[in-house]
Amino acid sequence: MASMSIIELNSLALIQDFGRFRHQHQGISVNGAADEFAFLKANHCLGNHVFTTRNDKSNEQNASLEVFYGQIKLAFDDSCYIAITGADCQPYVTSKNKSHSDIPMWQPYLVEAGDSIVLNRPSTGVISYVAVKGGIRSPQFLGSRAQSVVANQQMPVLSPLVKGQELPFSRSSDDLPETILDLTKYTPAGFYASDVLYLRFMPHQHWFDAPNHQQEDWLNTTFIVDSNSNRMAYQFEKELTTGHAFSKLSQTLSSAVNFGTIQILPSGLPLVLMKDRQTMGGYPTLGNVFQIDLFRLAQLTPGQKVKFIPAEIEQAQSQLNAFYQRFMPQ
Amino acid sequence: MLELSDYKVFSYSENAILIQWPELISAQLHQHIISVSELVENIQPWFIEQVCSYNSLLVYYRFEAISAHDFKAKLISAIEQAILNADEKPLIASQAKQITIDVCYDVATGWDIETICQQKQCTLEDIIDWHTSRTYRAYALGFTPGFCYLASLDKRLQLPRKTIPRKKVPAGAVAIAHHQTAIYPDSSPGGWHIIGQTPNVMYAMAKNQFKPLINVGDIVSFNPISREAFIAQGGNIARER
Do A280 and B48 touch (CB under 8 A)? Predict the structure, then answer.
């Protein structure tokens, strides 16, 4: 099997697909690509199947490299089509004859045997994806190749990648499909937020129970992404020290939590759960952020601004449906 | 008398609906939740997975194939069916296992034993007695793979979580917090008080299989063992650094 080797790594890199489903009742986190927009764009332009014919999510061909803040060098021992998407990491390729050339992002690119590619530290955004035609073929665990920032000694395959590792991919004689769906209307510029990111959320009971003035206060508050944010959770501070944090909510019995659940910490500040979240949580919850907005949130660096805004479940569902449909076989 | 019809069903996120019962720890309520979950599993082809806890059940479904409104209606009829069946169901499910966990309780394995003895004005023997003289029900599984929330702890042993969690609790640590006790299957950060360590392995892994020792609804008891027995069973005493 062909492979790409990690020659240099000064950042965090993991293999991701859609994640591990149907094992949350055993305490197994879902994991999976943090920014599904960039992840799906990369796989889609290579013609990798990311959905089954029944439109279910499929992890067969989509395992990709998820790189935080660039700074990785990969060497290829065989030719293949790749696609690099997400945070603008100004990737370039060095070929056997030492010539350098830039790799255009968000489109297929043919890498030759002996080439190595470099992702630089992006000036904006966090995560870049490197997808390969046919997907990375690392060992699966419980139906997924996804890795996690939460270390577990008994499950080494789930640990983040290290320098020297070789990631297998199948040597594919297939050419790229001739007609890749026209997605020009769905551009990165159109998807990501420019200034303040509005996190739309489906409210939970604690929100409805809160007095009006507290709801208003909350909606008027601008929050700043905290430097402790990672694949487990995004944490926030208030932009201004004035205004109230959410008042003390009653401590609840531990209960299942989901991707995007807004927990209110004892400090009154929010925490938004991401893909490497634990399956169970004890903090009171205010609502659940739209998944589409979580893909955007995953690209925010510490210091960037968000605001919360309540919205309807029907809107959340129809938008997420429309989002996935763009990547389904027509 | 527990009122099983006191429940709420609401959309939690795009792909999940939460069923919530009153905030209480009750074997009867929990057994009812398990009965509900057995019926919910059959809501096909829309059901995906579910996570059960003390007083809630989070159900993931194929929202692209059914509206939240219609799926809620199916959940409610499952809950109502479970209420009708409730009279015939025993408090402990027939498939529930009885599991005994061997624990070495002493000041070396129980990193917080000395502090607890001071706080509670009790002895190590009291702690062992209070912890081992009852059985516990597995109410929820989560936090880390195979981590089971067991309740309820003897009131004399209850104390809040540590204000500053430890960065590393060793695998096999037997710990307590509030009304709960648990075994840490792997080393992880944790804010519970450690009273001992077990040599027992909390889950088995094979290719594409994960089997936790304790499952939700199981009944767990703790058996005190000597340090020699702990070591003989393959235990390695993890000491606080």
Answer: no
Cα B95 from Cα A237, distance rounded (Å): 47
Q: A213 and chain B: CB distance < 8 Å anywhere? A: no
All domains of chain A in start order, with CATH: 2-191 (no CATH), 197-325 (2.40.100.10)
How far apart are alpha carbons A257 and A255 in whole angstroms? Answer: 6
- Nearest Cα residue in chain B from A152: B186
Q: To the nearest whole angstrom, how far is the Cα of A132 from the nearest Cα of chain B?
A: 24
What the block records as the tokens of B3 is: 């009122």
ipTM: 0.94
Question: Cβ(A57)–Cβ(A146) under 8 Å?
Answer: no
Q: Is B88 on the interface with A (CB under 8 A)?
A: no
Q: Outline where DSSP puts E strands in B6-129.
A: 8-13, 16-20, 47-52, 56-61, 98-103
Determine contact, residues A132/A4, Cβ cutoff 8 Å. Answer: yes
**Residue B69 and residue B130 in one domain:** no
The answer to whether the Cβ–Cβ distance between A254 and B142 falls below 8 Å is: yes
Q: What is the pTM of this model?
A: 0.94
Across the interface, do B210 and A23 touch by the CB < 8 Å criterion?
A: yes
Q: What pLDDT is stored for residue A328 in this prediction?
A: 87
Q: Is the Cβ–Cβ distance between B197 and B75 less than 8 Å?
A: no
Quote the distance between the C-alpha of residue A130 and its chain's center.
Answer: 13
Over residues B143-170, the pLDDT tens digits come to 899 999 999 999 999 999 888 889 899 9
Q: What is the CATH classification number for the domain harbouring B51?
A: 3.30.1360.40
As a whole number of angstroms, the distance between CA B124 and CA B17 comes to 45
Residue B20 with chain A: CB contacts under 8 Å:
205, 255
| Structural domain of B135 | 98-232
Mark whether B161 and B191 lie in a shared domain: yes
Q: Given an 8 Å threshold on Cβ–Cβ distance, is A26 in contact with B149?
A: no
Tokens of B231: 């070591």
Q: Quick check: is B173 in a domain?
A: yes
Å between B144 CA and nearest CA of chain A: 5
Which of B66, B88, B110 finishes a domain? B88
Question: Could you report the per-residue pLDDT of A202-252, keeping only the tens digit for each?
Answer: 999 999 999 999 999 999 999 999 999 999 999 999 988 766 667 767 767
Q: How far apart are CA A35 and CA A219, in angstroms?
A: 25
Whether A265 contacts chain B with CB within 8 A: no
Query: Is A258 within 8 Å of B12 when comparing Cβ atoms?
Result: yes
Query: How many Cβ pairs closer than 8 A exist between chain A and B?
Result: 134
Please judge whether B149 and A254 are an interchain contact, meaning their C-beta atoms are less than 8 angstroms apart.
yes
Count of structural domains within chain B: 2
Q: Would an 8 Å CB–CB cutoff place A24 in contact with chain B?
A: yes
Judge contact between A295 and A35, C-beta under 8 A.
yes
A141-145, B1-5, B144-148, B157-161: which has the minimum mean pLDDT? Answer: B1-5
